[in-house]
Design a protein that fits this description.
The protein is α+β, with helices and mostly antiparallel strands. It has two domains: about 1-35 and about 155-360, MetI-like fold, CATH 1.10.3720.10; about 55-150, no CATH class. It is about 60% helix and about 10% strand. The chain has twelve helices and five strands. The chain is elongated, with a radius of gyration of 27 Å. The two termini are about 20 Å apart. Belongs to the binding-protein-dependent transport system permease family.
Length: about 375
């Protein structure tokens, strides 16, 4: 049996490798996972939530460059390396876009950046604010590869950090849907009768509740936040898993290997977990990939409505909400870039779902 099982797994893996779009989608998802995990290492703005605002350089085009003066803070955050690596730097320094500067009698004189060819205000600061009175390391040309948003934040950094919410909501939602869906579907399909009727009633009632209403209800109970959205999305997606599991168990529970397990006196729990579920997981894996894509779309829609991740957290849906009106103002990239990110990630999960369906299909 072990050799047969291994050979079937190898056959499915070989079929999956032959699907070019499925393999490309897999590696794209791996890339997004790495970006999500180490976003603050890759982002030019590694402050928490990539939230460094510079209103004087708002809505600049991709490739915009400006000289940035960083005034160091006397406050020491004592932030640990691991915390800074995964949650961003607690930045207490002050960043000021400037056009020019000069040093006179231990005083730094600079002009703040101003758009449309205007001359910015001239200001001065003592060199005592800088270590060893050396200002050179604190003035550097900063390039915004994706431009800046309407608050003057680095759009590339916001996109990279925003991938974390859109990606991890899929994991949380799919995990919740699998735990609840497999449990409820197994009970309904295996025991049948009144248990099946009761669980199917719960499934139909849950399925009839719109996701938005459920999120609003949970928000009223727990407050706004991305964890509440994660839970709400998961609680609306388990019904699909439960229906699939129920149907699969009904079709196999009278097969010979299940009858033999009952005759040997095995408990219902062992029969379900050791004999039935391992043989019906193929369609569950496929629907989980589809649910992953659906969770990303739902979270993006909720963030667009202002119910999802709250400011200053970066979210692709919230970025579209903040900048969709810029489409008619000559700067559509502010909304198109996060929109393309959502589309690409959802498409990757749909393609890998199709590839898994073909690879796990025993009839092909």
């Amino acid at each position: 049996m072990a050799e047969t099982s291994n050979s079937l797994k190898q056959l499915a893996l070989q079929k999956f490798k032959k699907n070019v779009w499925g393999v490309l989608s897999f590696w794209f998802i791996v890339l997004v996972a790495i970006v999500s995990l180490f976003a603050y290492v890759m982002a030019p703005d590694n402050s928490q939530h990539a939230n460094q605002m510079h209103l004087s350089i708002h809505s600049k085009k991709p490739g915009f460059k400006v000289d940035m003066l960083t005034i160091p803070s006397a406050y020491n955050t004592n932030q640990g390396y691991v915390n800074r690596l995964f949650f961003g730097k607690e930045n207490t320094d002050t960043e000021i876009p400037i056009t020019n500067f000069k040093v006179e009698e231990e005083v730094l004189i600079y002009n703040e950046y101003a758009s449309d060819g205007l001359v910015g205000a001239e200001k001065s600061i003592s060199l005592n604010r800088f270590p060893q009175k050396n200002v050179t390391p604190f003035i550097a040309t900063k390039t915004f590869l994706f431009g800046t948003d309407k608050y003057g934040r680095d759009l590339l950094s916001r996109v990279l950090v925003g991938a974390r919410i859109s990606f991890f909501i899929g994991f949380v939602a799919v995990f919740i849907s699998l735990v609840i869906g497999v449990f409820m579907g197994s009970l309904a399909g295996y025991f049948g009768g009144k248990v099946d009727a009761l669980i199917m009633w719960v499934i139909n009632v849950t399925w009839s509740i719109p996701t938005l209403l459920l999120v609003i209800a949970i928000t009223l109970a727990l407050g706004k936040g991305f964890w509440q959205v994660f839970i709400a999305v998961g609680l609306t997606m388990w019904v699909e898993v439960a229906r699939v599991v129920r149907g699969q168990i009904i079709s196999v529970k009278e097969m010979q290997y299940v009858v033999a397990a009952r005759a040997l006196g095995f408990t219902d729990f062992r029969i379900i977990t050791k004999h039935i579920l391992p043989n019906i997981m193929a369609p569950v894996i496929v629907i989980s990939a589809a649910n992953f894509a659906a969770a990303i779309l739902i979270e993006s829609g909720l963030s667009f409505l202002g119910i999802g991740a709250q400011p200053p957290m970066a979210s692709w849906g919230a970025m579209i909400k903040d900048h969709y009106n810029y489409i008619i103002l000559g700067k559509p990239y502010l909304a198109i870039i996060p929109g393309l990110c959502i589309m690409s990630l959802v498409m990757a999960f749909m393609l890998i779902g199709n590839a898994l369906r073909d690879a796990l299909d025993v009839k092909s």
